[in-house]
Amino acid sequence: MYILGNLSIYFALILSVYAFIVFVLGIKRQDQRLIDSGRGATLAVFILASVSMLLMFIMLGTSQFQFQYVYQYTSSDLPLLYKLSALWAGNAGSLLLWTFFLTMYSAMVAYSFKMKRNPLTPYIVAIMTLNTIFFYLILGFVTKPFVLLDGVPLEGRGLNPMLQDPGMILHPVTIYLGYVGLVVPFAFAIASLILKNMDSFWIKMTRRWTIIAWLFLTLGNVIGGYWAYTELGWGGYWAWDPVENASFMPWLTVTAYLHSVMIQERKNMLKIWNLSLIILSYALTLFGTFLVRSGVLTSVHAFGETNLGAYFLIFMAFMVIFSMYILMSRYHLIKKDTGQFESFFSKESSFLVNNLILVGGTFAVFWGTIFPLVSEAVRGTKVTVGIPFFNTVMSPILLALLFVMAICPLIAWQRSSMKNIRDNFLIPAIISLVIAGLLVVMGIRDAYPVISFGIIAFMVLTHIVEFIRGTKARRKVTQESVPVALYRLLIRSRRRYGGYIVHLGIAIMAFGIVGANFDIERLETLSVGESVILGDYTITYEGLSQRSEGVNDIVFANMKVEKNGKQLGYMQPERMFYLNWEEPSTNVAVRSTLSEDLYIVLSAWESDQRATFKFKINPLVKWIWIGTYVLIIGAVFAIWKGRYGNVVPRYSGPQRKVH
């Protein structure tokens, strides 16, 4: 297995180099045989990557501790599911997973029916293959997945307890699918520039690729937040950790890109902006990987200090310089026949403002993330930027973004008259102001939550108005019933209304996020029988108990919970101690309702059973997870082909003899 595993890595590297060379030669000589050979090599590389993955899964699942990776990240008592998920617990395994996804996407593009006989295909696959070569160089010479130890240990070191969670089975996979997915639109964009195809064909062909990548990034971020909320025990779901920021920044730029490409498709505007956004998004995926694997910044998510970060930084710099060179060399062609903005009060302008807000947010997060490195370089002292900075900067950015999202659906293309603005926005604005006023009457005096809830209400109402307006317009023409008219309206404009559903999901998530302004937290040390009052809750500590779970021991507290005199039952915050790991893990006790979460953490205890707890009430948190489900539904609806989504964009760019 050692020989087979390493052969699969090195043969894949050789074939990747071969594929790249024959693609370049085939393009230069216009020789279709060379292109076909490169396409075959691309498929062979994917097969070899699959073999590497299968071998690694077998090694992990069967506890073959003679392999260094298996020894470092598993143990014989580990459940099979966590043994297999240990594949992405370390550098070598996670990069192998990344490479597998990359080769899979490359093969899918190379053999895509929609790209059959398209002259862009060799360029696209060559660019993706260049990325594959880099990853195989890392796997072959820097962090090798198939390394034998000198002896055969009786037992492995085990998996980090923080990774023994269902969220950690899904979180890395979704993040990698998002990261790798952005290579596809990047490759399409650069290939179009090289071939001097300046229309929006590459945008239309990669629309679903980009939305799927965006969806996986969204899922990765939310699942990571849920894991942090239930596993880390600090009481929140987003700490603006450098690695969290690393996956959030490309999400912001891709969100901006998905909006701005609509302007290019409809009005032939923002060509350079869109190309720059997709290059930036791609570069940020590499930058995020640099942060995770370099150890330059402290993070609970990082893989530790290694020299891998330097390689990613060099590769990122090379790809960005290469991309910008191609972009600037085609600048005069891109600027031809570019449309112009006709009015500030138009849908195009609202999309542009949306983009500026998102890119501004990206820069704010980027600056806060790298500030410790900048301060260390300038002053010799690493100054860390904390949660208050990010919350202070990003809160108004969130509100501005929600406000623009509220305006976008109802504002007209090209130019909106004052009558149009008044007719579309007057009623939602009045209702939103009434809601804000009611919140003040109910006793909420802080400006930020009042304004936030008012804007969220305005956003939801404008989207509802858009659904109603579209249904009415369709009924006027077809005389259909309301349900039929609404259904057919949606399925005939999946991209548009799927996007609106995504907006509603984000509004629901924002509703939950704003709830953090009302959280209550206390740290208390209690003796058995003592109670603590937190808001409407009375929580009584009834003692510690212990139980075993396999080879692990669990210490848990019995907490009787009452609310307004009514008994709600018991909650049991836990600390789990592992046979193969020095540090215990925290299992938070959470009682979740639509209005609030009661959150209890067992922090420490004494021999006389006195225990210290963190108690927290987190209002509206459940709406973040509900909003995520709505967002997923909207994104899937938008990309689902259906009866009206099977039209393949027509390529009208320069022709070549090879395809």
Strand content: 5-15%
Form type = globular
Global Rg: 27 Å
The domain count comes to 4
What is the assembly state of the chains in this entry?
single chain
Number of strand elements: 10
Distance between the termini: 38 Å
Question: What is the residue-averaged pLDDT?
Answer: 90
Classify the secondary structure makeup into a structural class: alpha+beta
Q: Work out the helix count.
A: 21
Fraction in helix? 55-70%
Show unreliable segments.
Answer: none
Major sheet characteristics = 6 strands, antiparallel
What does this structure look like?
The protein is 62% helix and 12% strand. The protein has helices at 2-29, 32-61, 68-73, 80-85, 91-110, 121-141, 166-181, 183-194, 201-205, 207-232, 242-267, 271-294, 308-329, 331-334, 347-379, 387-407, 418-441, 447-478, 482-492, 494-514, 622-639; strands spanning 520-526, 531-534, 537-549, 552-563, 566-571, 574-578, 581-587, 589-592, 596-605, 611-619. α11 (242-267) packs antiparallel against α15 (347-379). It is an alpha+beta fold and 659 residues long. The model has no long low-confidence stretch (mean pLDDT 90). It is globular and about 85 Å long. A hairpin with a 2-residue loop joins β4 (552-563) and β5.
